[in-house]
Design a protein that fits this description.
This protein is an alpha/beta fold and about 290 residues long. A seven-stranded parallel β-sheet has the order 3-2-1-4-5-6-7, with helices on both faces. α1 (about 20-35) links the parallel β1 (about 15) and β2. The model has no long low-confidence stretch (mean pLDDT about 85). The chain contains nine helices and seven strands; from the N terminus they run βαβαβαβαβαβαβααα. It has a single domain, classed as Rossmann fold. About 45% of the residues lie in helices and about 15% in strands. It has helices spanning about 20-35, 45-55, 70-85, 105-135, 155-175, 210-220, 230-240, 245-255, 270-280; strands at about 15, 35-40, 60-65, 85-90, 135-140, 180-185, 225-230.
Length: about 290
């Protein structure tokens, strides 16, 4: 059977949260190059406007605190008023502070839940309200391979990403009859500021933001629910899961993936990123 041609994204309105840097910025550049009408939302307004201007292709920047749900909704309303119906929402904003579980503060736990999970739930719900009546659209939620496995040193982060994976699958089934697509992107460690202080392991080398962006764009062109980056991780994960847990744990130990994140806890190389994570949601500053 002949493969369907990729969907044409020319003129399609795509909103990307956390779009001023890293994966979000790389995705925005690729989509703008394909003729999409791209809107990036990010907390740092100056950086957002500068990034949008540098991307070209008419990319529009908005200041966005994803933990401010009313503000998030207002931004989506403004985008539709200015550019037309949103075709795709890419929920990309997220933080990954590292610490041993007992050392994590209540404030940081709440911050991760608010940014990594609650904001994705809110954004997804807002997208559903818009796309379902139109019977058209695509929701892309950026999770992580930490949404499939637990990793020492990032317990709450793993919990939030497991939540995103579960949310995406559930909403996928709800929207299937309405021609609205859902994709969950699950990358390994991505070489951005978030990965500062982390080392590559035998089983989990770092990927570039452009690799993840390419996977996001491909999913918009040819919809698919589960996407791992790199792609071979999906097969590796399924292979490991057919064996008793002890086998998987032994492979993790040999490949040093069992300590991939915990080894970087309190690393001085992460100081700048950890501070930015603390400042990542002004609406939560009272926590």
């Amino acid at each position: 059977m002949a493969k369907k041609p990729p969907r044409d994204l020319t003129g399609k309105v795509v909103v990307i949260t956390g779009g001023a840097r890293g994966i979000g910025a790389a995705t925005a550049r690729q989509l703008a190059g394909l003729g999409a009408k791209v809107v990036i939302g990010d907390l740092d307004e100056e950086l957002t406007q500068r990034a949008a201007g540098e991307m070209g292709g008419g990319v529009v920047g908005h200041r966005l605190d994803v933990t401010d749900h009313a503000g998030f909704t207002k931004m989506l309303d403004q985008v539709e008023a200015d550019l037309g119906p949103i075709y795709a929402l890419v929920n990309n904003a997220g933080i990954m502070p590292l610490s041993l579980f007992e050392d994590e503060t209540d404030a940081m736990t709440s911050r991760q839940l608010a940014i990594n999970l609650e904001a994705v739930i809110h954004g997804t719900r807002e997208a559903v309200k818009r796309m379902k009546p139109r019977r058209s659209g695509h929701i892309v939620n950026v999770a992580s391979m930490a949404g499939r496995v637990g990793t020492a040193g990032a317990a709450t982060y793993c919990a939030t990403k497991h939540g995103v994976v579960g949310l995406s699958e559930a909403v996928y089934f709800e929207l299937k009859p309405y021609n609205v697509d859902v994709t969950c992107i699950m990358p390994t460690i991505v070489a951005t500021e978030l990965a500062a202080g982390l080392k590559s392991s035998k089983l989990s080398s770092q990927v570039k933001p452009e690799d993840v962006a390419n996977a996001i764009v491909k999913s918009l062109q040819r919809p698919k629910l589960d996407v791992t980056v790199p792609g071979y991780l999906d097969g590796l994960f399924k292979f490991i899961r057919i064996w008793p847990r002890g086998v998987g744990e032994a492979m993790a130990k040999v490949g040093h993936t069992d300590e991939l994140l915990s080894a970087a806890v309190n690393s001085p190389d992460r100081a700048a990123y950890e501070q930015r994570a603390v400042e990542s949601a002004p609406g939560l500053s009272e926590l």
